[in-house]
From TrEMBL:
Name recorded for this polypeptide: JmjC domain-containing protein
Record-annotated JmjC domain positions: 38-194
InterPro entries for the chain: Cupin_8, JmjC_dom
GO MF terms, alphabetically ordered: tRNA binding
A single BP term in Gene Ontology: wybutosine biosynthetic process
Length: 209
């Protein structure tokens, strides 16, 4: 999937039909939203899928994440790549079913990976370009992680990342959490990815000059 090119469409289908299609190898991707107020509230696994809530528990070692959780997102995917992007809020990615390969880059690499000014997404196909050596390893610093069922990966704020499935069916839960005491977006932020309030204010002040 390429967020900038929008080479995908949003559709609404019954959950059973979606799971059937994915199990048959269809290139589909579910990113859960709030059931009651998808445009107003962040996703919450306990509220949106109460029948699954007791089946997913973070270990006690991640009590910081649990105590500062912003959203918990159910993700179910077929053989679909997630585009290269970064999130403003820290999060942990918990693989439940299937396996996935992720490539991460530190924030300092953003100028070498075709991010447009003000954009948090890039159209660079990292996996093919790393294979063909189109991405300079002198200018970028890729880190690779392979997640299997039960694995949890910490994604620091602003770290660029992309993912590709290693199995036809993948199920994961992505938990965004507040790693700062304050300073997050001054407005509504359903996805936990709006710029920090200080940055937004600074950009507005600069545009006024």
């Amino acid at each position: 999937m390429d967020f900038n090119a929008k080479n995908f469409v949003y559709v609404t289908v019954p959950f059973g039909d979606f799971m059937q299609s994915v199990s048959e190898g269809s290139k589909m991707y579910l990113r859960a939203l709030s059931e009651d107020q998808p445009a107003e509230q962040p996703a919450n696994l306990n509220i949106d899928f109460p029948q699954l809530a007791d089946d997913f528990q973070l270990p006690e070692e991640l009590s910081l994440v649990t105590g500062n959780a912003f959203s918990s997102v159910l993700r179910i995917s077929g053989p679909v790549n997630m585009w290269l992007h970064y999130d403003v809020m820290a999060n942990v990615y918990c693989q439940v079913i299937g396996s996935k390969r992720l490539i991460l880059f530190p924030p300092s690499d953003v100028t070498h990976l075709s991010f447009a000014p003000g954009s948090s997404s890039s159209s660079v196909d990292v996996f093919s370009e790393l294979e063909s050596s189109s991405i300079s390893l002198e200018q970028t610093h890729p880190h690779e992680a392979v997640l299997n069922p039960g694995d949890i990966l910490f994604l620091p704020p602003l770290w660029l990342h992309t993912a590709t499935p290693l199995t036809n069916l993948g199920v994961a839960v992505n938990i965004f959490f507040r790693n700062l005491e304050s300073g997050y977006s001054s407005g509504r932020d359903v996805y936990g990815n709006r710029d920090l309030a200080g940055y937004e204010k600074g950009r507005q002040d600069k545009s006024v000059e």
